[in-house]
Amino acid sequence: AGVNGTYFCPAAYPECGGKTDTFDFSVYNTRLGRWINGGNLGWGGRAAVYVDGGGAHYTQNPASAGGPSAGIANYPGLVDGGNVQIDDNQSGLSDKQRSVGTKVGLGTRNSSNLMVVIAYGVNMQQFAYVFKALGATGAVNLDDGGSTALYYQGRYSVGPGRNLPNAVIFAPR
After folding, report:
1. What DSSP state is assigned to residue 38?
2. d(Cα 173, Cα 67) in Å, to the nearest integer?
3. Across the beta sheet with 138-141, what order do the strands follow?
4. For the chain, what is the mean pLDDT?
5. HSE toward the beta carbon, residue 156, CA cutoff 13 A
6. SS3 category, 47
7. CA angle, 154 as apex, 6 and 157 as ends, to 5°?
8. Contact 161, 144 (CB under 8 A)
9. What is the pLDDT of residues 60-89, one digit of tens each?
10. Over the stretch 110-146, which tens digit does the pLDDT of each residue have?
11. At 36, is the secondary structure helix, strand, or coil?
């Protein structure tokens, strides 16, 4: 199964000025055994969900995610320690992030569960409360809109509306 990944700059967007499907957020590539764009782990306000030998974890400091086997950093962090961490008036949120629509995110419940949540008709703060209601101890928002995608059992159940430069893939060992 798989779900869309980080925010990126689609070539079709005028403000991307010649960039080609670039992304500035960090993704741990399990196959390569390293963070792609790892130098960006310390950019302020980012959060990460990652997996290591001890299970699934959430951190509001992605640079502290030592020794992962998989991970993704994005903005904003939604839930930390079971508490909502986002307010729709928070600086740094784009108008699109503040708007009501489809949201996609990853969450953890303690270190034993990793959850993928797709919610329709919510703003960012409401999305955080969806995670909280599901018992998440940590959660991070992923890209949404035309990037929303869920791939399961060999087919797309949702999206994607455009090519994606990265995704979170769940595969049997």
Report:
1. G
2. 18
3. 83-84, 77-80, 138-141, 101-109, 113-122
4. 85
5. 10
6. strand
7. 60
8. no
9. 999 988 889 999 999 899 999 999 998 877
10. 988 999 998 999 999 999 999 999 999 999 999 877 7
11. strand
Six token digits for residue 173 = 């060992």
Query: What beta strand segments (E) does 5-43 contain?
Result: 27-29, 34-36
Tokens representing residue 111 in the block: 């270190």
Q: How is residue 20 written in tokens?
A: 């080609």
Handedness of CA 146, 26, 126, 9 (dihedral sign): negative
Query: The whole model's pTM is what?
Result: 0.86
For residue 26, give both structure tokens. Answer: 């960090």
3-state secondary structure of 79: strand
Q: In this structure, what token pair is assigned to residue 166?
A: 């990265």
Tell me which H or E stretch contains 48.
strand 47-52
Measure CA 24 to chain center.
13
